[in-house]
Design goal:
The chain has 11 helices and 5 strands, in the order αααααβαβααβαβααβ. By secondary structure, the chain is α/β, with parallel strands linked by helices. The protein has a domain at 57-247: Rossmann fold (3-Layer(aba) Sandwich). The N and C termini lie far apart (123 Å).
């Protein structure tokens, strides 16, 4: 019985080919080389699909985070010692996420406090952006006062705006996300109401128990913050490994100068109450 190669030679001769010459010039088949080549192509294709899949997941994480897209390290102005120090601490906090032991050992909290307009929210947002990109960390950015208002309106059970359902959904996110950023903590508040203190304190304690990290941003100094949050809530913060970062100095926000402000009009046709 003829082998496969003999049959191929017969076909070649029938077609007028110089089979002996072709066989001499033919390169021996290198299975290992070909296998390596196809493995490389397959791995490249898998890598491309994985990258596309990661991009979709990252976009979904951004969608739920409610982060300002401009709050990145690239847009930060490193023009003052407190900001430079804060950025250094922020980068160390991000780098620590590479260590699984660090992530699982405890809950971690960064407390940004100090003057208005110093970049506290910007740096917190930059941390969140970096963690999403590098580690696909789930993030939620919220202003505390907005949450407290949602919580208040959720008690109106006769309302038709689904406020109760919306708050239950957001409350679940507050507990579940890997990093919760609470901004404007106790803004314009001398002391939070007792019910708000209890709710926030319980939220922080439950997140700490599950090793979920937080960033709190406030314009109070630490003594004022303790008074504003109340003892129970402030004690909840001690459940975390806390990194306190103080911001000081003048605001970065553009001032409304006297020339830019509208002049007051005390005479002429300005409205005067109870005037006949």
């Amino acid at each position: 019985m003829k082998s496969l190669q003999d049959r191929l030679n017969d076909i070649g001769r029938a077609l007028g080919k110089d089979v002996d010459k072709l066989n001499k010039e033919a390169q021996p088949y290198d299975y290992k080389k070909q296998r390596a080549h196809y493995d490389t192509l397959a791995n490249q294709e898998i890598g491309k699909l994985q990258q596309q899949s990661k991009q979709k997941r990252v976009e979904a994480l951004y969608g739920q985070s409610e982060l300002n897209k401009h709050w990145t390290f690239d847009t930060l102005q490193e023009d003052a010692p407190d900001v430079i120090e804060a950025i250094s601490i922020a980068r160390s906090f991000i780098a620590a996420h590479k260590d699984a032991g660090w992530r699982n050992s405890n809950a971690h909290m960064m407390l940004f406090y100090g003057d208005y307009g110093r970049g506290k929210s910007h740096i917190a947002g930059a941390i969140a952006h970096q963690l999403i990109q590098q580690f696909e960390t789930t993030v939620l950015y919220r202003q505390l006062q907005t949450l407290l208002e949602m919580r208040f309106f959720s008690y109106d059970y006769q309302a038709n705006d689904n406020a109760s359902q919306q708050f239950r959904e957001i409350n679940k996110q507050l507990h579940d996300v890997d990093l919760l950023i609470l901004d404007e903590v106790c803004v314009n508040e001398t002391v939070l109401k007792k019910s708000a203190q209890s709710w926030l304190g319980n939220l922080l304690r439950q997140r700490a128990a599950n090793n979920k990290n937080c960033i709190l941003i406030t314009n109070h100094n630490l003594a004022e913050l303790e008074k504003a949050l109340g003892r129970y809530c402030f004690e909840s913060m001690k459940e975390y490994e806390t990194y306190k970062v103080r911001f000081q100095g003048p605001s970065r926000r553009e001032a409304i100068s006297q020339g830019q402000a509208e002049p007051s009009n005390q005479q002429g046709s300005a409205y005067r109450p109870n005037e006949i």
